[in-house]
Amino acid sequence: MKTMKKVVAVLMVAVMTMAMSVLAFADEEITFHFKNVQNWETVGGWIYEGIAFTTNVTPPDKCAVVNGEKQLWPGAKCEDEGNGWVKITATFSSRDAGAAVIFNNWVADNTINDTTTQEDLDKLAASGVLCDSSAKAQSPNVMIGVKKDGWVGFDANEYWISWDGSSTGMMGAEGSGLSKEAPADYVVAGGETPTEAPTEAPTQAPTTGSTQKAPTTGDSVAMTVVVLGLVAAVAFVVSKKKANA
After folding, report:
1. DSSP character for 49?
2. At what angle do helices 217-244 and 2-24 cross, to 10 degrees?
């Protein structure tokens, strides 16, 4: 009985180690592709984790940032993919929260709460962002992870947003213009069109023409920790059995 209790205790420690390792490396990279039908010279991406605009996860290295923390509208420059498509990748702490994304013409607006001080305006100017509220243009709110039929969060690593350029209604997971599969007119600069976008997290390295990414370093480290934890647990049990023999 004592031996059994020890085995159970060791296994519980192993399970806790696995859970902690997964939580420690839970960051997820999600890529958003946007059809620039308005032909904006530069496209900005303004991204929040959580559909209630709770945590700004706009890539800080690609936008004006104040005091190393506060991201300013219009957000980060999107990467040009060619043929009218741009993309931006953000890192989320969880797959469950979903995202609120607004694409824009990368023009600042000093009338909104995100731009309130002279320091904000100075940072925008230094970043080369035009600050002219009258010239500002943007897409509707793109809400990924809206609760419906018990579903919430991300169910893909990539999303395509095909805004028609005029509609103003919220674009939700069930709305028109938002897809987790590449639309027929999505052709990257290299001339290759992915035939199908995976609907789940990738399990292998990307094939030619795909924009999916292999698991991040954090995922690999987490898996290594899990395996080592199990190996250690088994070794401990075996050694105890030998000692009691």
Report:
1. E
2. 170
DSSP secondary-structure letter at 62? G
Ranges of residues in the chain whose predicted pLDDT is under 50: 4, 7-25, 195-238
- The rounded distance, in Å, linking the Cα atoms of 79 and 43 is 8
Q: Which of 115, 38, 35 is nearest to 74 (CA)?
A: 115
**How many CB atoms within 10 Å of residue 218?**
16
Chain centroid to CA 96: how far? 11
pTM of the model: 0.69
Which of 91, 213, 104 shows the shortest CA–CA distance to 154? 91
CB of 58 within 8 A of CB of 45? yes
pLDDT tens per residue, range 21-43: 343 345 899 999 999 999 999 99
Interatomic CA distance for residues 129 and 107, integer angstroms: 6
